[in-house]
Design brief:
By secondary structure, this protein is mostly helical. 74% of the residues lie in helices and 0% in strands. The mean pLDDT is 80.
């Protein structure tokens, strides 16, 4: 959990290797994070229990609105980590901003 907390604060804390690695994995799993959001909406509204088609439409509309923001978060965190590593490297030899 501490690693995820460091990832969320990416631009403000030094980047450790484990934070960099976990953020890279989250970037690969961004579509799965969107699916988890849809499942949470589906289960949270009780649509699975009463099989109400109106509730399904609420989740689909909500998913289309929130989906781009959830999908972009891991990439944004990785970008902030790359910028922070470049800034912390001093002369820029260890990290290159073009790798972001």
């Amino acid at each position: 959990l501490k690693c995820l907390y460091n990832i969320v604060r990416s631009g403000f804390v030094p980047v450790a290797l484990k934070d960099f690695y976990i953020a890279d994995q989250l970037t690969s799993l961004s579509i799965i994070l969107v699916d988890i959001e849809y499942v949470a909406c589906y289960l949270g509204t009780g649509s699975w229990h009463n099989n109400d088609s109106i509730v399904d439409h609420v989740c689909e509309g909500h998913n289309r609105t929130v989906e781009p923001y959830i999908a972009m978060l891991p990439s944004l965190w990785r970008l902030l980590q790359c910028i922070r590593r470049w800034r912390d490297s001093g002369d820029g030899t260890k990290a290159n901003p073009r790798s972001a």
